[in-house]
Specification:
The relative contact order is 0.11. This protein is 47% helix and 19% strand. It is built from eleven helices and ten strands. The chain is of the alpha/beta class. The protein folds into two domains: 203 residues, Spore Coat Polysaccharide Biosynthesis Protein SpsA, Chain A, CATH 3.90.550; 108 residues. Strand 6 and strand 7 form a beta hairpin. The radius of gyration is 21 Å and the shape is globular. Strands 1, 2, 3, 4, 5, 6, 7, 8, 9 and 10 form a ten-stranded mixed β-sheet that branches. The N and C termini lie far apart (68 Å).
Length: 327
Amino acid sequence: MKTAISIIVPVYNTEPFLKKCLDSILSQTFKDFELIIINDGSTDKSGSICDEFALKDKRVKVIHKENGGLSSARNTGIRIAEGEFLGFVDSDDYLEKEMYKVLYTLCKKTNSDIAICKFSREVKGKLQKEPNNELILEMNHDDALRNLFKGVLYRFSVCNKLFKKACFDDIIFPEGRVHEDLSTTYKLFAKSNKAVYTSYPGYVYVKREESILTSKFNKKRLDAFLGWEEILSFMSDNYPNLTNEFLCCFAFGSIDNIHYILNQVENRGDKENYLKVIQSLVRKHFSKLLLNNSLSFKYKLTLALLIINTNLLVLSGKAKNKFRSII
């Protein structure tokens, strides 16, 4: 009989967090799963910890490989996965005990290809939970994509989701870049017929200061715009009815990165070069962004300054900071 779920956990030097993560998976109330751990060339004791877990539970498979990055590790896991559904867990996070039972049950009950739950967050060792309003929302193909780009109920992370394995036919995570979920999740939703969302907070994201996405802005974060270039082309060709949603999402992502570049990058030349990467893509879609009624005047003005001259944006950012220091 086929395994219900394959849970894929890439591991790279997360020794302090790994046991808690793996324990939270093996203690799931849902039992019909295989746990595929990909040790992606760890140089600490993570590899040994993985092997310990394989010895104590026959559902655990461990693959040791040379370091290739998160996408490479996930792709390795997908290739050997035998489950009907796929789940992904980052090795420094952990799960609530009911998570996979809730998601799998919803998929089966509603005949959905994707089930999504809510995130909780742990910051400095303290769990931060928002109230659970016990919402369950069944969505057709277009509505699931629409909500993905709206980003209110859920966003691009694959970790709080359960996917029918068939969604990954001909789809892999892009290797060698960060923001791999941004570059992949919309394709998985495009492959699905139906999705279901629950406000149950099943996945606990542990915020670490040294993470590439929570530390100071660096050039690798511009990989997001490689993803956005693909997204904008794909969505424009296939889902023109969702133009408002995906362009707004792109605009919000651009503004966030502009903010981080202006406030976190110290070198003036780097600052302008990073802004030019965003400028190039915004320019291609600027006329549609300008006509988008869901974007505020403030957002449109920021994007206009970016288009006119990145140097102007740098100067306006400096002026704003000086003004704030005065008040």
